[in-house]
Amino acid sequence: MKTLRIGELAKRSGLSVETLRYYERRGLIPSPERLPSGYRTYPEQTLNRLIFIRRSKELGFSLDEIVELLELEVAGDVSASDVKSRVDNKIEMVERKIADLKRLQHSLQTLSGLCCGEGSLSDCPILEYLHQPESSDD
């Protein structure tokens, strides 16, 4: 079985050595064997797991969610629908974030519209608005 040293594994996976060590501490990848020289050597299949982790992160999954996906992959009593439901949940979360960002964008555009960008700083309606206390509906 071919093994890879940590530097080669980092290079081929597109991740840093520090990230690999962190993933090892988190249990995302198995602890490597060590050569008498102290070098870490990883089985080649670790590269496949790292690619899975990296692609999952690129799609917005947290490390905890990735652990769950990896556990689903090795569990014998799950189906593809279990994995799909995780992805569907992630889609719903992304949609909520998009809606929140659109609300934020609208608020910032409204705030920007208060000011023509001219005049003294002491007359800036944006700063004046930001200094206003929140109104309470007691």
From TrEMBL:
Pfam families: MerR_1. Keywords: DNA-binding, Transcription, Transcription regulation. InterPro entries: DNA-bd_dom_put_sf, MerR-type_HTH_dom, MerR_fam. One of its GO terms (molecular function) is DNA binding. Residues 3-72 form the HTH merR-type domain. This is Transcriptional regulator, MerR family.
